[in-house]
Amino acid sequence: MNRYLIVGGGITGIIMGRILSDKGLTFQGLEKSRRIGRDFTFGQLRIHQDNHLGLIKSMSDAVEWTKIDDQPKERKKGEWVSSSIDVTDEEKAFLGNPFYRPTVRIDTVVQKITSSVENLFSTEKLVEKIDLAKKIAYCQDGSEFSFDHLLWCADLKSLIKVMDGSPKTSIKTSKKNEDSQGGIHLELELKNQCIPFSNSVIFPFRYKDYKLRAIGINDQASGESETVLKMHWLVFVERELAEDREEVAKVIRALKRELFKEFPDLKLALIKEKIVFQPKVETHRSSEAKGLELYPNVFYVGPEVHLSDTTVESSPLDLILENCKRVGNTLSQGSAEAV
User: Fold this and answer.
1) Cis ω before 167 (30° cut-off from 0)
2) pLDDT value of position 337
3) What is the CATH number of the domain that holds 317?
4) Is residue 64 situated within a structural domain?
5) Distance CA 329, CA 339 (A)
6) Do residues 12 and 302 make contact, with C-beta atoms less than 8 angstroms apart?
7) Which residue of 85, 118, 171, 308 has the fewest C-beta atoms within 10 A of its own C-beta?
8) What residues make up the domain containing 267?
9) CB burial readout 37-73, b (16+ within 10 A) else e
10) What angle in degrees, to the nearest 10, is found between the helix axes of 316-333 and 11-22?
11) How far is CA 12 from CA 281, 315, 316, 319, 330, in A?
């Protein structure tokens, strides 16, 4: 019997685990942190491709997804109008259109996907070396895990590092943006929905001499199925501002002050808030590869790589689902030719 080892217990590893499990293939999962399913804490999951809906529904107890095809709204001269502004690379993932969104909170979807495979993952297992000849993954805590097929569901750079060598499969690396920005994610837990739009909204505001804009996203299309809603506000700022924690805190206060003015019901609806700060935001850029088997019996699964016949104008979740399906089908057929 083949031994399958999944490295990475974020949403990619969970989906990959569910695909293997649904095909009757057993696996061992490893996650470096204390919890699994945590790599979508910054913003919102979105699906753009119709053909991925069935798969995600089958994993989440048939949670319904609604198609959103209206344009993002922008606050301009005191009115909400269809957005016409140019967006940055960092903003694109949250302003793509049209897209599908679930009718429940995102964390509810993640929990449903996780529930049946959670016990198959071991946490606090950081893989620091892989021996291809022996087919063993060595962890920082001294534990070892044997495999016949290894499915890497963490970031691509760390895979290349633990393999200590270049991939056998050619990867056309996309051009990096050296002017990457910092990101601030203000998550608000609310009693009721306060933004009257289905798609994202762009909310300009000022802080000192900076002209900033926040992207607002309701985390639920309908408030009928859950009593607590979430709203996400994302602000991308220049590096000089992002690297100063005190300044970041002041930006959040300035944003909240303007939001309370714009949405009078927001303050009364607010239950609690959480701030996630990233000094440097890694923008979504997928590189083309000839195959997903980057090393013998080692497959990369995630949104950083796509094959030549994959639609690249997709969300990270679309690419994750596509690559997971390809690898899952290949392993269940016993051949690596397809990937």
Assistant:
1) no
2) 46
3) 3.50.50.60
4) no
5) 9
6) yes
7) 308
8) 71-103+181-278
9) bebbebbbbbbbbeebeebbeebbeebebeebeebbb
10) 30
11) 19, 13, 10, 10, 17
Within 8 A by CB and 6+ apart from 83, the residues are 71, 72, 73, 74, 95, 202
Q: Is the pLDDT of residue 3 over 50?
A: yes
Query: How far apart (Å, rounded) are the C-alpha atoms in residues 170 and 11?
Result: 26
pTM score of the predicted model: 0.84
Regarding whether 154 and 187 lie in a shared domain, the answer is no
Contacts of 84 (CB under 8 A, 6+ apart): 74
pLDDT in tens, 241-290: 877 889 989 999 999 999 999 988 899 999 999 888 877 766 667 888 88
3-class SS string, 246-299: HHHHHHHHHHHHHHHHHCCCHHHHEEEEEEEEECCCCCCCCEEECCCEEECCEE
Residue linked to tokens 């997903």: 292
Q: For residue 157, give every residue at least 6 positions away whose Cβ sits within 8 Å of its Cβ, in sequence order, or none.
A: none
The count of domains in the chain is: 2
The verdict on residue 35 lying in a domain is yes
Helix axes 11-22, 106-114, angle to 10 degrees: 40
Positive or negative: CA dihedral 328, 331, 337, 339: positive
Q: Tokens 């019996």 appear where?
A: 297
Name, in order, each residue with C-beta under 8 angstroms of 15's C-beta and a sequence gap of 6 or more.
59, 113, 320, 321, 324
